[in-house]
Design a protein that fits this description.
It contains 13 helices and twelve strands. The protein is α/β, with parallel strands linked by helices. Among the domains are: 85 residues, Spore Coat Polysaccharide Biosynthesis Protein SpsA, Chain A, CATH 3.90.550; 110 residues, no CATH class.
Length: 335
């Protein structure tokens, strides 16, 4: 099987060089590397060309989702690898994910992603979502250990370093570009779950991620997009009956997240994001109405019930006050 590696880039020339080095060391190498440039000004696209990558210029910072979609449309591989430019891969990364995709029932795979700043800690594994529509990358910030070393079926993978069957996108569609970045992968995972197209978490495949290298985790634009996209996620995937049923967990999760943003000096950015999400939520689309039209909202409620029950099971192990308060205020979720 041939792999097309897609790397969206917005500056970060030195980080991109490290990723390209790790791609060259793969025991199962990519047949092509496509770097989609979102208007870099530090020489990142020139570096990519000098290393043999094909560079596609977006002409502006069109966002992660738009850049990835462009790369997927241009790719010729039977498998599509999507990689953040600030990630490095162990030499066996593609081969171990490819082995998982050899199972015909697996449509995508991701590995154990460690923090580049502290490799003893987890950056991310797979996504889990609570009833309130707020996601956690399972293991984020936790010490690596046996809890994160079990291979398992998943419905949502962070697109930090993931491998997909190219055929999958004909079933699910591409990323929703109006998300720009943040939660676009969770939205995609919800669609995979609604269509019964599972993925695989492969902890033997190791990568290292610097994380939020472009803007920073608590940059106002980052907080605004996350706050907006949390609203988009609920508008797109929660039928109205479910929104009423889970109104209290939704309010708790979003207000707690706003309190965390306020603590980091980005409360105004959080408010802007929520306002944008409310104003535009009608135009973001409701994929389950068409993708599961034969089963309708009742089926979507069943799918989300299973997803969030499983998600809250994993999230209970999350560190920090945020999730402790969430479960204290919204008892009985996963049970």
């Amino acid at each position: 099987m041939s792999i097309s590696a897609i790397v969206p880039v917005w500056n970060g020339r030195e980080l991109l060089a490290r990723l390209l080095d790790s791609l060259e060391r793969q025991t199962l190498p990519a047949a092509e590397t496509i770097v989609v440039d979102n208007g870099s000004t530090d020489g990142a696209p020139e570096l990519a060309r000098s290393r043999g990558a094909r560079v596609i210029a977006m002409g502006r910072n069109a966002g992660f989702a738009a850049a990835v979609n462009r790369g997927i449309r241009e790719a010729g591989g039977e498998w599509i690898a999507v990689l953040n430019s600030d990630v490095e891969l162990a030499p066996c990364y593609f081969s171990r994910l490819g082995a998982a995709l050899g199972d015909g029932d697996v449509w995508f795979a991701t590995g154990k992603i460690l923090s580049a700043g502290d490799p003893s800690r987890i950056d991310g594994t797979f996504d889990a979502v609570c009833r309130g529509g707020v996601a956690w990358r399972v293991g984020n910030g936790c010490p690596d250990g046996t809890a994160f070393s079990q291979e398992q079926s998943i419905w949502s993978a962070p697109w930090t370093a993931a491998l997909f069957r190219a055929q999958l996108f004909g079933r699910t569609g591409l990323l929703e570009e109006r998300f720009e970045s943040h939660y676009e992968d969770v939205d995609f995972g919800f669609r995979c779950a609604a269509l019964g197209l599972p993925g695989r978490y492969v902890p033997g495949a190791i990568a290292w991620h610097r994380g939020s290298a472009a803007l920073g985790r608590w940059h106002p634009d980052t907080v605004r997009r996350i706050a907006r996209n949390q609203t988009y996620l609920i508008a797109r995937h929660y039928p109205s009956r479910l929104r009423w049923r889970w109104m209290w967990p939704i309010l708790v999760a979003h207000l707690l997240w706003g309190a965390v943003a306020l603590q980091h000096g980005t409360g105004w950015a959080w408010l802007r994001g929520k306002w944008e999400g409310r104003l535009r939520r009608q135009s973001i689309g409701v994929p389950w109405r068409t993708e599961t039209a034969d089963r309708g909202a009742s089926r979507q409620m069943e799918v989300l019930g299973v997803l969030c029950k499983s998600g809250e099971h994993f999230i209970r192990g999350a560190p920090g006050v945020f999730w402790k308060l969430y479960f204290l205020l919204t008892p009985g979720g996963e049970k």
